[in-house]
Write a structure and sequence with these properties.
With 222 residues, this protein is of the alpha/beta class. It is built from eight helices and twelve strands. The strands form three sheets. The chain has a five-stranded parallel β-sheet, sandwiched between helices. A four-stranded antiparallel β-sheet has the order 6-7-8-9, with helices on one face. The chain has a three-stranded antiparallel β-sheet with strand order 10-12-11. β11 and β12 form a beta hairpin. The longest helix has 16 residues. It is elongated and about 55 Å long.
Amino acid sequence: MSFKIYLVEDDKNLNLILTTYLEKEGWQVSSFLTGKDAQKSINNPPDLWILDIMLPDIDGYQLIKEIKLTTPNIPVIFISARDADIDRVLGLELGSDDYLAKPFLPRELVIRTKNLLERIYGIQYQVINIPPYTIEEKSRRIKLEDNLIDLTSKEFDLLLYLAKNQGIALSREQILEAIWGSDYFGTDRVVDDLVRRLRKKMPELRIETIYGYGYRMIENDK
C-alpha cells in the first residue's frame, strides 16, 4: 500500500535526504520547509505526519494542535534537536505517536514510520514466488521447498529489490542507492559482489548481467 506522508523539516539538506529515504519505501511524500506551508495542507490530510518541532515560523507544537483539532486520528512523529525528555513529554501530551531526537540515522526514521503505519493501518507484506523459491517479505525468509536459505541482510534486500522489479533493467547506481542509500560513498562494484554471492546461494535465480549497465531479474518459467 502506498501511504501519503507529510514531512515538515526546515533544514533543506535533511529534508531532501529524509524525503529520498521515505520515497524509496514506495510512499508518497510531500515535504514542507515551514509551518505555514504545512498549515495549508492540514485540510487535505496524509496518512502520517513527520514534524520538526523547531521551525522558522510556527513551531511544531502549534502545528500538531491544529492537526489534531482537524484530524485527531492521524499519527504524528515528532523530531527535534532540543531537550529530548521535555519534547517527548510535551509531544505525547499533544498527541504525537512517536519521537526521534536529532541527530538520528535516516534509516531509523524509516523503521519508526514503517512500524507506526503497520500499527495504525496494518501493512500487507508480500509473499513472492520465484520458482523454486518463495520470498516471505515480513519474516525476511527465503524457502526452497521446506528448506530455509540463509541470506545476509544486504543479500535479502537485493533479492527483494530485484524480485519487485522483475523484467526491469536496473543500473548499478539504482541498485546501490536502493540497498546502501544515497549517502554511500564507495565503488559500485560492491553491487557485483553482492549479485555474485546471491547467485551462489540461489543458483536457480535468473539474474541477467547487462554489461556496462547493471542487472535484470527474469521470471522463472518453472
